[in-house]
């Protein structure tokens, strides 16, 4: 276990709890008898005789239809949590919401508006504030709901300055070492640096002690955040409505997401279907989403599915905003815009904007709190799981204000089964990339898994921030390119053409294991990508991080190209394109059920232990099961290929032309000045070379090599394509050569960029020479095996009429004829 970072909270933390529990008013106070008065003002249940759809967190609505509430005085300065829970089974699917207002100012303190009545509303208050706690019966049969209010005192801030720094990581090994040491890495990496958040002096010392050099990019994050939020306030005050599909001008809070989704569903009841995922979050929140297609209620309609998700990572707010704006785009455009109508009809779009509601609430509400100690919570990344904290005191406390601090929890983007337990994830409960105790241990990840396992999610985007990237599997180099690499690359290019991002394999950034699409793609075959939205920050000013990125406006990389809006449309076009998935057709009576089913085990990575030793891989089991409600007569069912990409072999090809001959790479006159900073912007040499394509040549690999004499001297090498993208690099230390590899390089002109990273002082310059650019033929494909879907036809009563084994590949269609007729 690494260092436990409590930042002084452990000693000073005292919790004051006022719990108004289900059976009358019970008071749990630690140390302050004055709580009785506040408790006496409260209630344990809320009652409303009629339901009324309303935005509960809009304003206090005393004595209005569907509303019940009470006043309560904040017993301490710190956190207030208002919780609702259904009173009984009947209330299970009813929908109550809750909001807490400051009576004096009308400020919305806390709110929760999930699709059912499992509400957890967190906010920050000052001791003595009079609060209005208001419950609203939005829909359903439950007249009553349980309510409890808890106050947790905020310990005096032992706050330290947090900084954003660029750490020098000239080699891949350096990057991996930085990950291994559990620094708080951002996604912003150049070929020679990674941006890291330092949460105080101890982090800075640790970084230096580990031998890393760094330059400070943002000296005082708290101050920077305050200025960013101020610019957000100005923007929201001056703009009534943005050009976003929703018109929003400011970052949503958690309740806004849920409320807006159910409002969309209420206003478009056949086009929009609300869904609540299988498991509630660690703190008990529902994970909600919507599905969009005509007659959305029939989830067994056989349409191909595009799942668009946000906020696996708490602080990455624009990722949720983008998913949400996408939902508005589809709803607004359906029936008005021709392309949208066509695509929405042909596909099913599922949007889950907030996969990590607990973490998001912690992060987003910390901004409302706004004091210096809050910023570490604003930069929370993971979920709220306390179970792996090593001591009981660190397992205590509510997530927004716990003795364990904001770094308690599991990284939801390291907890999926795909290659779980390998490099690029932490084994430490307190590490920012903590993988969790087991694959799929977290309910939030389990929820996404069940959603995907129960549908034919043919296309998936999981949104993150930031770094202007379209990432495709695999997450680790060793996995090898999947058989779908050419398609994944092409589709990545189509999306990158719109958002202006760099289209690369995930591992080209840094190694990761247990990520979303490294499970979903390899076991379901659904085409999956990670978007890293934006170029500068986890949640930059709204106008930059959301409006500009979504609509494709300056300063976004997609300015003038359509932005993420058009990138998502490209993905929806792919979803509608049968060449990108598989199709099962046939005939069947109306109202019968066709089911495709597959169960299998897949290994994780060999599991790296906390001491660094590598143990055996674990096997995890998946069950993929989805249904088609037959319309009667002909059906077409859009499904994923029957064979898991994991076992389908690996991409390769036979050459269609000879391999290109070696090209010289001659060293220009002179020696560039030493450059340990930005390789492309600082001093360097550039040597152009050409890669030929068929019919002249067919190259599987290009090797660009430079050599020199003394391995204490360090030259680095980068390969840049005609568009200015870095497409290859070799930047190691301690060798007397660099060898950059391009896999399947597209024909065109390239530049070798050679950087003089370090010479030996007081010695003559050790300049480089080169054997030139050499080429290899393509690797032949690696063979795999085929798997089948087991397809059953079930009569309306449930009995099985027929069973088929269906092998179908990507772009393929299998016609089963009269599929429910039993054949011997
Ligand atoms: O590290 C991550 O989880 C992602 N970056 S972030 O800064 N948003 O946290 C990148 C994951 C990339 N790898 C795969 N998706 N396989
Ligand atoms: Zn992320």
From TrEMBL:
SMART domains cross-referenced by the UniProt entry: Zn_pept
Molecular function terms, GO-annotated: metallocarboxypeptidase activity; zinc ion binding
Any one Gene Ontology cellular component term annotated for this protein: extracellular space
PROSITE patterns registered for this protein in UniProt: PEPTIDASE_M14
Cofactor(s), by name: Zn(2+)
Region (Disordered): 651-686
Record bears the keyword Hydrolase: yes
Domain Peptidase M14: 250-563
Active-site residues per Swiss-Prot or TrEMBL entry: 532 (proton donor/acceptor)
UniProt keyword annotations, A-Z: Hydrolase, Metalloprotease, Protease, Zinc
CDD domains: M14_CPT (cd03859)
Entry similarity comment: Belongs to the peptidase M14 family.
Designated name of the protein: Peptidase M14
Organism expressing this protein natively: Planosporangium flavigriseum
């Amino acid at each position: 276990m690494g260092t436990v970072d409590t930042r002084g909270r452990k000693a000073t933390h005292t919790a004051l709890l006022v719990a108004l529990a289900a059976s009358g008013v019970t008071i749990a106070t630690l140390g302050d008898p004055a709580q009785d008065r506040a408790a006496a003002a409260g209630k344990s249940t809320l009652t409303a005789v009629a339901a009324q759809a309303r935005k509960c967190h809009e304003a206090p609505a005393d004595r209005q239809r569907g509303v019940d509430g009470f006043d309560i005085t904040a017993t301490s300065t710190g956190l207030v949590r208002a919780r609702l829970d259904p009173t009984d089974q009947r209330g299970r699917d009813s929908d109550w919401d809750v909001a807490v207002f400051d009576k004096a100012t009308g400020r919305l303190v806390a709110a929760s508006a999930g699709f059912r009545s499992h509400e957890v509303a967190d906010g920050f208050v000052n001791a003595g504030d009079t609060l209005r706690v208001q419950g609203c019966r939005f829909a359903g049969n439950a007249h009553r709901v349980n309510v409890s209010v808890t106050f947790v005192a905020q310990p005096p801030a032992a706050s330290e300055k947090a900084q954003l720094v660029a750490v020098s990581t000239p080699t891949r090994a350096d990057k991996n070492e930085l990950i291994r040491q559990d620094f708080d890495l951002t996604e912003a990496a150049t070929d020679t640096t990674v941006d890291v958040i330092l949460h105080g002096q101890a982090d800075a010392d640790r970084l230096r002690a580990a031998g890393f050099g760094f330059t400070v990019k943002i000296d005082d994050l708290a101050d920077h955040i305050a200025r960013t939020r101020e610019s957000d306030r100005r923007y929201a005050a001056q703009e009534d409505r943005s050009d976003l599909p929703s018109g929003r001008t400011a970052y949503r809070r958690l309740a806004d997401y849920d409320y807006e989704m159910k409002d969309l569903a209420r206003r478009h009841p056949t086009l929009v279907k609300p869904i609540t995922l299988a498991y509630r979050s660690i703190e008990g929140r529902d994970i909600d989403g919507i599905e969009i297609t005509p007659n959305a209620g029939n989830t067994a309609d056989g349409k191909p599915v595009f799942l668009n998700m946000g906020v696996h990572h708490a602080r990455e707010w624009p990722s949720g905003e983008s998913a949400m704006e996408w939902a508005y785009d589809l709803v607004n455009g359906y029936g008005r815009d021709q392309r949208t109508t066509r695509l929405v009809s042909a596909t099913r779009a599922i949007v889950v904007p907030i996969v990590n509601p607990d973490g998001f609430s912690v992060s987003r509400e910390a901004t409302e709190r706004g004091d210096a100690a809050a910023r570490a919570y604003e930069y929370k990344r993971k979920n709220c799981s306390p179970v792996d904290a090593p001591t009981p005191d660190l397992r205590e406390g509510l997530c927004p204000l716990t003795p364990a601090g904001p770094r308690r929890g599991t990284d939801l983007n390291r907890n999926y089964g795909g290659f779980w337990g390998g490099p690029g994830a932490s084994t430490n409960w307190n590490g920012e990339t903590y993988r969790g105790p087991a694959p799929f241990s977290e309910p939030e990840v389990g929820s996404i898994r069940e959603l995907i396992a129960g549908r034919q999610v043919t296309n998936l985007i999981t949104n993150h921030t930031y770094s202007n990237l379209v990432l495709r599997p695999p997450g680790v180099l060793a996995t090898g390119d999947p058989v779908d690499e050419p398609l994944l690359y092409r589709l990545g290019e189509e999306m990158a053409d719109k958002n202006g991002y760099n289209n690369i394999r995930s591992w080209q950034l840094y190694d990761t294991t247990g990520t979303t699409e490294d499970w979903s793609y390899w076991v379901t075959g659904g085409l999956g990508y990670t978007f890293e939205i934006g170029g500068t920050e986890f949640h930059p000013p709204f106008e930059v991080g959301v409006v500009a990125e979504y609509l494709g406006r300056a300063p976004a990389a997609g300015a003038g190209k359509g932005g993420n809006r058009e990138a998502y449309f490209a993905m929806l076009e792919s979803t509608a394109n049968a060449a990108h998935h598989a199709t099962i057709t046939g005939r069947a009576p109306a109202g019968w059920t066709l089911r495709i089913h597959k169960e299998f085990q897949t290994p994780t990575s060999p599991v790296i232990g906390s001491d660094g030793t590598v143990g055996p891989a674990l096997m995890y089991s998946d069950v993929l099961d989805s249904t088609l409600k037959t319309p009667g007569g002909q059906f077409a069912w859009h499904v994923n290929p029957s064979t898991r990409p994991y076992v389908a072999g690996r991409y390769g090809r036979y050459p269609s032309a000879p391999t290109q001959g070696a090209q010289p790479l001659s060293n220009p006159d002179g020696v560039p000045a030493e450059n340990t900073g930005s390789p492309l912007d600082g001093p360097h040499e550039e040597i152009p070379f050409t890669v030929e394509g068929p019919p002249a040549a067919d190259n599987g690999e290009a090797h660009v090599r430079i050599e020199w004499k003394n391995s204490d001297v360090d030259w680095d090498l980068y390969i840049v394509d005609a568009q200015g993208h870095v497409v290859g690099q070799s930047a190691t230390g301690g060798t007397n050569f660099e060898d950059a590899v391009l896999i399947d390089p597209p024909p065109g002109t390239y530049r070798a960029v050679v950087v003089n990273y370090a010479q030996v002082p007081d010695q003559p310059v050790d300049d480089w020479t080169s054997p030139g650019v050499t080429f290899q033929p393509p690797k032949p494909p690696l063979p795999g095996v085929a798997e089948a879907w087991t397809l059953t036809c079930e009569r309306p009563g449930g009995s099985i009429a027929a069973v088929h084994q269906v092998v179908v590949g990507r772009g393929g269609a299998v016609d089963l004829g009269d599929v429910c007729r039993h054949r011997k």
